[in-house]
Design goal:
Layout (H helix, E strand, L loop, with lengths): L12 H4 E3 L4 E5 L5 H20 L6 E6 L3 E6 L6 H8 L15 E8 L7 H8 L3 H10 L2 E6 L6 E4 L14 E4 L3 E5 L2 E4 L4 E3 L2 E5 L20 E6 L2 H13 L5 E3 L1
Parallel strand pairs: 5-13
Antiparallel strand pairs: 1-2, 2-4, 3-4, 5-12, 5-14, 6-7, 6-13, 7-10, 8-11, 9-10, 9-12
Length: 253
């Protein structure tokens, strides 16, 4: 892949590193353009993980990329923020867009009806048909930018510009698990029932988070995701087959 150097990351190190409590270090990148900041955070996470695999780091407990920063959580009994800063600084000058193998995931979605209560309202607001919204939503390949605020919830960027809308003025107190929703340039899938203020357009029939699995979270940062439409009969069959292990999500690299 092509290399890209973020010259700004090599400047003003004092503001680049921020403390996050007694065991967290934030590498701040919010002075970069938004898309570059997200890529830089992900690239730095990849480099740190590679260094950890080679045992070049000790004491790091978790690495969490954000939209404009990277949170490094560490064990203060093993290492210090000062030690981590010293190790991370030279990495900032050598970041590339190579973050390892990228997974491509095809995600089934049943749009509209009881699963997409906001679809018709969106169609009226945007001046297009519900079918147009579905077609535009599935046409783009989305990219998982960050994870949170629920286990397994992925913020996927790349929604068609024609579908850009702010969040709902009044959030719902409860959104059903596995609901697919859009707002701004992003799509989310709620892995668990929760409050939510995004526009709900459909639902998927597979779990995003299963604590009993060896890999409990389905989606990961940098994954590419494409949705494809299914009807209610296909939804019910896939949901049943997924629980019994007869249906597998399509994942390629």
């Amino acid at each position: 892949m092509a290399m890209f150097i973020f010259q700004q990351l090599q400047q003003d190190y004092d503001r680049r590193f921020l403390s996050a409590g007694g065991h967290g270090l934030v590498v701040n990148m919010d002075d970069l353009p938004a898309d570059q900041a997200t890529k830089a955070a992900r690239a730095l996470a990849h480099v740190i993980k590679a260094a950890m695999a080679e045992q070049a780091f000790s004491g790091i407990e978790d690495i969490i990329p954000g939209l404009t920063n990277l949170l490094v959580q560490y064990n203060p009994l093993v290492t210090t923020a000062a030690t981590l800063k010293q190790s991370i600084r030279p990495m900032l000058a050598e970041l590339s867009d190579d973050v390892g193998a990228v997974r491509h995931i095809r995600m089934p979605c049943c749009y509209g009806g009881e699963f997409g209560p906001d679809l018709d309202e969106l169609a009226n607001t945007l001046g297009m048909s519900a079918d147009d919204i579905i077609a535009k939503h599935q046409a783009n390949t989305l990219e998982v930018a960050i994870m949170g605020f629920l286990p397994g919830l992925a913020y996927m960027k790349g929604v068609d510009e024609a579908l850009y809308l702010p969040r709902r003025k009044t959030p719902r107190a409860r959104v059903s698990a596995l609901s697919v929703a859009i707002a701004m340039d992003q799509t989310v899938i709620y892995p668990l029932p929760s409050p939510g203020g995004w526009h709900i357009i459909g639902r998927i029939p597979v779990e995003l988070f299963d604590a009993n699995k060896e890999e409990p979270v389905l989606l990961k940062s940098s994954d590419k995701v494409t949705f494809y439409p299914i009807d209610i009969n296909e939804y019910n069959k896939i949901k049943s087959d997924y629980k019994s292990g007869r249906f597998l999500i399509e994942i390629s690299t």
